[in-house]
Amino acid sequence: MSNNDSPIKSTGLHIGEAAPGCKKTDPMLVIDHVKKSFGGLTAVDVEHLEIPKNAITALIGPNGAGKTTLFNLLTGFDTPDTGAWEFLGTSLSGVPSYKVAQMGQVRTFQLTKALSLLTVLDNMKLGSKNQVGESIFRALFPGSWRKQDAEIELKAIELLKRFNLDAKQADFAASLSGGQRKLLEMARALMTDPVLVMLDEPMAGVNPALTQSLLGHVLNLKKEGMTVLFVEHDMHMVRHIADWVVVMAEGKVVAEGPPETVMNEQAVIDAYLGAHQDTDLGVVTGRISIIDQEKDK
Amino acid sequence: MTRVVDVKNLTAGYLPGVNILNEANLYADKGELIGIIGPNGAGKSTLLKSIFGLVKVREGSITLNGEDIVGQKPNQLVSKGVGYIPQNNNVFPSLTIEENLQMGVFQEPKNYEKRLEFVVSIFDELGKRLKQRAGSLSGGERQMVAMGRALMMEPSVLLLDEPSAGLSPVRQDEAFLRVSEINKAGVTCIMVEQNARRCLQIADRGYVLDQGTDAVTGTGRELLNDPQVVGLYLGTLGT
Amino acid sequence: MDWGTIINNTLAGLLTPTTIAFALAALGLAMHFGFAGLLNFGIAGFMAIGAYGYAISVLTFGFPWWGGMIVGIIGSILFAILLGIPTLRLRGDYLAIVTIAAAEIVRLLFLTTAFTDVTGSADGLFGYNNAGGFTNANPFPPGSYGWGPWTYNSETLWVLTFGLGVLAVCVWFLWALMRSPWGRVIKGIREDEEAIRALGKNVFAYKLQALIIGGIFGGMGGIIFAAFANVSPGVYVTSITFFIWTSLLLGGAATIWGPVIGAVIFWTLQAFLSNILPELALAGILPVSGTQAATLRFVLVGIGLMLLVIYRPQGIFGDKRELTFVK
């Protein structure tokens, strides 16, 4: 897989103008009047937001804009003060996080939660849903769960091979490097057979070379029919793989649209992207003169 | 040119028997801005922590202006002019910005007023909000406080561990520009970074750390344009 | 120095009903803390409920001995649920504080004279083994069994055999559970609850189940102890909780055999110390009186526990990687 092939972007995701709160042709998540405050501070105040199905949506915005809070609200890890949101037509209001996960959503965390003191394979097997052996009564009778466990193991090893982790299946997850743990978390999330994958800053702390391979895996999710929503600060990643971009600031959605349009909006540049997006900071700081830069070219 | 920091054949680690750094070398001349990049787990943070006395050095030497500093405690190094800005937990959230800066000059409280002037001149945002609790600040603002605090002791060497981590693009650029400004004011800077491209754009010289040792070194520009470095460490997405 | 008696008594400590009772309680704590990561400092409470449940059902309600034991077990389950529902959502250290308080409340309820008709308050209860028919159920004819330090009369042998049987069942139970997918989820919860929730598991339910299972083992420990000795509130003080913790950590908190071996070593050591220390005092080697010397062993237990936690938290059988208190 060549790293620099531009992925085919999905189009026709929205109805009408690409503005904050616009409707989508095939929404997977619909959020209505959701508000969350901490103390006196309004962290999230979203009028309306729809996340398109089978597309990769990026959620960007400055720190403190409410991205992670919104994430936590959507995945059931936090409860909003008011508002309603639906996942595939079912209301998620009041649904605890583990039930949301059972419905087909899966999320990763900014700080990887690879279960360090379990083996890589056990980490993977935990991801599988509806395991007979996880019920305390049936756990005592291996006859009832052995077969399913063996099937789960096969599926886990297949996935591990895809992420190049199969050689490490018997090792404790603690022995994996930071990048490998990111891969493990993604692979484990896939064991749940999700329809919506929510990634919270998946590239945080990952060095640029590994980022490219991780991106390939994220693109595969879309190819396999899943929907992806991710929070990120890495604009190269966003431009490369996102079909749709939602920009948040101070708790509200301030812009929506395909990456090229959104990331050229002046307001977004001022508040978030910075004026030096595509310039060399060496030039901006005066450390290298324009002549040197010409020489490099 | 006096070598401010000189690290030779450094071997160090956290768990017994496991070395993170394996004979790493690095030096910084006065006034230089050194960038350290490389894959996860390569030992970049460990290298900074070893210089600052937070990690036990097993083999090798570290000198500061010619003086051997292996085994010295961080507070001793602070009084010798070394400043350190960790990646996480780098401000006291229950203290105000002012109190955080006061903590920075803890060893020489009499210099507070003078140094506050200097720090506020670089970070005028902080000057306007001295009474605000550091815990209520955003990530980028905390970065500023952390840097300000380190500058209160008038360090000759500043060690920065991923100053741009977790920041939005505009704040990242601001962080890099600030480090460049601080360096131009005369402070030798050694920074570890995950945003390799930006780091090398402002660095005088860079080290690529891989598997605990310095794999490639050169000027910032040389590394930015080296195809091997690009392929292995920088990635081509930004081009 | 009467070495003969010292060695004899020490070896006897290897296999006594008290040892088995402790092994059961330590097994329960292994489920709670070793595998599920729940900081339960109230294991004495579970033992008390098991013991009193058995004794009271027999003496006050006329239950047969096995009915009384079942009541003891049900009591432990209810106690676990009562304890768990409000506290399992608390952070670990808060759970620890609440469990200490809960165990003390249980003990004080049994101590208070308000219920003295039923509980016997400070005097405790006795005679239930006869009343409930446990003594009569003894299959061994009267006489002396065993040899050397391990000589028992038929009553003690019955309790011992019964206790060993219960222990074997409980050990199997714990082993079977922990090697199953259920056990995998429990270990995951110990590592990181949020990650497990994000994978669709009902963390609260699993923690409650672990609390109940461990509670049942603890209750059984109390029942065995009651069947051997008597039931008195003075037994179920907080010190007993710490003895059980020591036994658990000694053997290895996150292992199946660790708690059992740990309890055996603990009681053998206790037997040794309670014999040798007074002898040393009498012989003038220790500058304390005979009675003071006997209590000195508790000081040594405390020191031993501290050293264990600091230098070898994984115990004898444990894997250091699995269990460190410094995260």
What's the CATH architecture name of chain C?
Orthogonal Bundle
Write down the CATH topology of chain B: Rossmann fold
CATH architecture of chain B: 3-Layer(aba) Sandwich
Query: Structural class of the helices, strands and pairings of chain C?
Result: mainly alpha
Given as residue ranges, the uncertain stretches of chain B (5+ residues, pLDDT < 50) are none
Strand order across the largest sheet of chain B: 6-7-8-3-9-10
Which word captures the global form of chain C? globular
From the spread of the alpha carbons, the general shape of chain B counts as globular
List keywords for this structure.
heterotrimer; A: 297 residues; alpha/beta; Rossmann fold; 2 domains; six-stranded mixed beta sheet; four-stranded antiparallel beta sheet; 36% helix; C: 327 residues; mainly alpha; ABC transporter involved in vitamin B12 uptake, BtuC; two-stranded antiparallel sheet; 14 helices; 2 strands; globular
Question: How would you sum up this structure, described in words?
Answer:
The complex is a heterotrimer of chains A (297), B (239) and C (327). Chain A is built from 12 helices and 10 strands. Chain A has 297 residues and is an alpha/beta fold. Chain A folds into 2 domains: 1-113 and 193-264, Rossmann fold; 115-175, no CATH class. In chain A, the strands form 2 sheets. A 6-stranded mixed sheet of chain A has the order 6-7-8-3-9-10, with helices on both faces. In chain A, a hairpin with a 2-residue loop joins strand 4 and strand 5 (90-91). By secondary structure, chain B is α/β, with parallel strands linked by helices. The mean pLDDT of chain B is 89. Chain B is built from 10 helices and 10 strands. Chain B has a single domain (33-46, 73-234), classed as 3-Layer(aba) Sandwich (Rossmann fold). In chain B, helix 3 packs parallel to helix 6 (139-151). In chain B, the strands form 2 sheets. Chain B has a 6-stranded mixed sheet, with helices on both faces. Chain B has helices spanning 44-51, 74-79, 97-104, 112-122, 124-128, 139-151, 169-184, 196-202, 220-225, 227-234, and strands at 3-12, 21-29, 33-37, 57-64, 67-68, 82-85, 157-161, 188-192, 205-210, 213-219. Chain B is 37% helix and 26% strand. Chain C is mostly helical. Chain C has one domain (3-311): ABC transporter involved in vitamin B12 uptake, BtuC, CATH 1.10.3470. Chain C has helices at residues 3-12, 17-35, 43-59, 65-87, 92-111, 116-119, 128-132, 154-178, 181-191, 193-198, 203-228, 238-251, 258-282, 290-311; strands at residues 144-147, 150-153. A two-stranded antiparallel sheet of chain C has the order 1-2. The longest helix of chain C has 26 residues, at 203-228. The termini of chain C are far apart. The mean pLDDT of chain C is 88. At the A-C interface, helix 2, helix 3 and helix 5 of A face helix 8, helix 9, helix 10 and helix 11 of C.
